[in-house]
Design a protein that fits this description.
Strand content: 15-25%
Strand order of the largest sheet: 1-2-3-4-7-8-11-12
Largest sheet: 8 strands, parallel, barrel
Structural class: alpha/beta
Number of helices: 11
Oligomer: single chain
CATH superfamily of the largest domain: Glycosidases
Bound molecules: beta-L-fucopyranose
Shape: elongated
CATH class of the largest domain: Alpha Beta
Distance between the termini: 52 Å
Length: about 500
C-alpha cells in the first residue's frame, strides 16, 4: 500500500500504467518465489531425535559388570555379587577422557546377560547392593548419569533382555520383571537418549539353579511393541537401538564397518530382533526402505567387550581407531566404540593413550578446511536462486544447502583454490532433513591440466568421508552421477 502511494507521489503515471506496473511486479515476485521453493522431501526423513543422534557422530559403549572380575565375556548367571569389587572406580575419569576425545554420549551396560545389576534394583538381590562396592550403597547407573550431566554428555542404557540369572527367564513373569527394571531406570536416572536392546537371546544358563538350556522366540517373547510403548510413555524422546530399530539399527557386524553403500532407509517390518541372515541388509539398508532407521556401527577398543588383563597389549591403536572412524562416521553412520573399565573401575592407561592418540589424529587430519577459502560453482542451481547456490556448500552453515532443479538428478560442482593444494580427504554431507538422495558420485582433480579420478562412491547420507591418495591440485570436480531426486547437499569440506 505504502509502495503504491510513494509511486503515485513521485512518478506521475496514468492509472492504467500503474496497474500494469503493479501486475508486472506481482508477476516477478511470484516467479521468484516459485523458483525458490525448497525441494520436496524424498522418501522417509529422520525425526528430531534421529537428527540429533546423527550429529552426535561418536558415542561410547561401556561394558562393565561382574565379568570384569571373573575374566569372562558372558557370565553364566551364578556369580556371587561379592565378586563385584572395583578398587578405585571413578566415573569422572571415564567421562572426562571420553569428552576430551570428542565423544558425545555414553551407553552403559546396566545389566548384561548374567543378570547382575549396576544399580540397586528393588526387584532382585542379584545387584550392586549386595556387593562390597561402597558397602552395598553404590549405584553406578546414578554415578555415571550424574557425571554425564556434569560433563555435558548424553547418557544411554543397555539392559540385556536375556538374563541367565533369573529362574523365571522364559516365562511371562520374567517379562514383567524386565519391564519393572525399565521403569526403575527410566524414572530414576534423568534423561536417557538411547536404549540398547541386545539381540542375543536364550541358551544355557544358571536360571535360578536350573542349570539348563532355554530358548525363547525373540520376536514374540518380549512383546516389543508393548515394551517400547511402556518406555516411550516414560521418556518419549528415547531412541531405540535393536537389530530392527525402530530408532537406529545394528550394522550387521561388530567391526563398526558400515556398508560402502549405506542407506538410512530400510523396511523394518521385514525384520525383527534375532532374525538370522539379515546382516547384509542391515549393513546397506535399502534405497526404497519405508522407514528412516540409520545404522549404528559398534565395536570395541579391545578384542573383547569386557576388560581382560590378557588384552592389555591388544588395544586398538590410534590409527586403527581412525580407520574405524572412516568406515563408520565416514560412511554416514554413528560410531559406538566400547571402552571397558578395568578391575579398578578405571579406563586402562593403554586405552586412554589410544583414545588420546585417536583424537590427535582427528584434529590433525581435519584441521584446515581448504574449501572455506575456495571459489565454487555448480552446473545447475535450483531456480538460479542464492538460497540454493553452491556457495552454501562452503559457508560452514549446516542449515543452508545446494540443490538442483527438480528433475535434475546429476550435476557437477567445481571447487577452485588460489593455488595448488595437497588433498587428502573430501567430506560431503547431504541435507538429510529432505531425505537421502545421492546414489553415485565421483571426484576428479585437475592434475597438471588433466582431469584424474581420485575417488568414487555411492551413498552420502549424513556424512561421507573419502580418503584420497594425496594429490596436488588447484581444481576439484565432484560429479553426481545419479540421485533419487534433485541432489541436496549441505556441505563440502576439503582437507
Ligand atoms: C552382543 C553381546 O552378546 C555382547 O556381549 C556385547 O554386549 C555386544 C555389544 O552385543 O550381542
Amino acid at each position: 500500500m505504502q509502495f503504491t502511494t510513494l509511486n503515485l507521489q513521485f512518478i506521475y503515471l496514468p492509472m492504467s500504467q500503474i496497474r500494469i506496473l503493479y501486475l508486472l511486479l506481482v508477476l516477478i515476485l511470484l516467479t521468484d518465489c516459485s523458483s525458490t521453493v525448497p525441494p520436496e522431501p524424498v522418501g522417509p526423513v529422520p525425526n528430531e531425535q534421529q537428527l540429533m543422534w546423527h550429529e552426535m557422530e561418536m558415542n561410547a559403549f561401556i561394558h562393565f559388570t561382574i565379568n570384569t572380575f571373573t575374566d569372562k565375556e558372558w557370565g553364566y548367571g551364578d556369580e556371587s555379587p561379592e565378586l563385584f569389587d572395583p578398587s578405585g572406580l571413578d566415573v569422572e575419569q571415564w567421562v572426562s577422557v571420553l569428552k576430551e576425545a570428542g565423544f558425545k554420549g555414553v551407553i552403559l551396560t546396566a545389566k548384561h546377560h548374567d543378570g547382575f545389576c549396576l544399580w540397586p534394583s528393588e526387584h532382585t538381590e542379584h545387584d550392586i547392593a549386595n556387593s562390597p562396592y561402597k558397602n552395598g550403597k553404590g549405584d553406578i547407573v546414578k554415578e555415571l548419569s550424574e557425571a554425564c550431566e556434569k560433563y555435558g554428555l548424553k547418557f544411554g542404557i543397555y539392559l540385556s533382555p536375556w538374563d541367565r540369572n533369573r529362574a523365571d527367564y522364559g516365562t511371562p513373569a520374567y517379562v514383567y520383571y524386565y519391564r519393572a527394571q525399565l521403569e526403575e531406570i527410566f524414572t530414576g536416572y534423568g534423561e536417557i537418549f538411547e536404549m540398547w536392546f541386545d539381540g542375543a537371546n536364550g541358551g544355557d544358563g544358571y536360571y535360578g539353579g536350573a542349570d539348563e538350556m532355554r530358548r525363547i522366540d525373540g520376536s514374540t517373547y518380549y512383546d516389543w511393541p508393548g515394551t517400547l510403548e511402556l518406555v516411550r510413555n516414560m521418556q518419549e524422546d528415547v531412541i531405540f537401538f535393536s537389530d530392527a530399530g525402530p530408532g537406529v539399527r545394528w550394522g550387521g557386524n561388530e567391526r563398526a564397518s558400515a556398508g560402502f553403500t549405506n542407506w538410512n532407509t530400510i523396511t523394518t517390518d521385514t525384520l525383527y530382533a534375532g532374525k538370522y541372515g539379515i546382516e547384509d541388509l542391515l549393513n546397506t539398508g535399502s534405497e526404497d526402505g519405508k522407514s528412516w532407521v540409520p545404522l549404528e556401527a559398534n565395536t570395541s577398543i579391545r578384542p573383547g567387550w569386557f576388560y581382560h588383563e590378557s588384552e592389555d597389549s591388544l588395544v586398538k591403536s590410534p590409527m586403527e581407531l581412525f580407520d574405524i572412524y572412516l568406515t563408520s562416521v565416514g560412511r554416514g553412520s554413528t560410531l559406538l566404540l566400547n571402552i571397558p573399565p578395568d578391575k579398578r573401575g578405571l579406563f586402562h592407561e593403554n586405552d586412554v593413550a589410544s583414545l588420546q592418540g585417536f583424537k590427535a589424529l582427528l584434529d590433525q587430519r581435519f584441521a584446515n578446511d581448504l574449501a572455506l577459502d575456495a571459489t565454487i560453482k555448480a552446473s545447475d542451481v535450483r531456480g538460479n536462486s542464492q538460497f540454493f547456490s553452491a556457495e552454501n556448500l562452503i559457508d560452514d552453515d549446516k542449515e543452508t544447502y545446494w540443490a538442483t532443479n527438480d528433475g535434475v538428478t546429476s550435476g557437477e560442482i567445481e571447487i577452485q583454490f588460489d593455488d595448488k593444494r595437497e588433498i587428502n580427504f573430501v567430506v560431503l554431507q547431504e541435507y538429510i532433513k529432505l531425505g537421502q538422495r545421492v546414489k553415485e558420485f565421483s571426484i576428479t582433480a585437475d592434475v597438471d591440466g588433466e582431469w584424474e579420478k581420485i575417488a568414487e562412491a555411492t551413498s552420502i547420507g549424513y556424512k561421507r568421508i573419502l580418503r584420497i591418495d594425496p594429490v596436488e591440485t588447484s581444481k576439484l570436480r565432484i560429479s553426481i552421477h545419479d540421485s533419487k531426486a534433485a541432489p541436496v547437499l549441505s556441505s563440502i569440506q576439503v582437507f
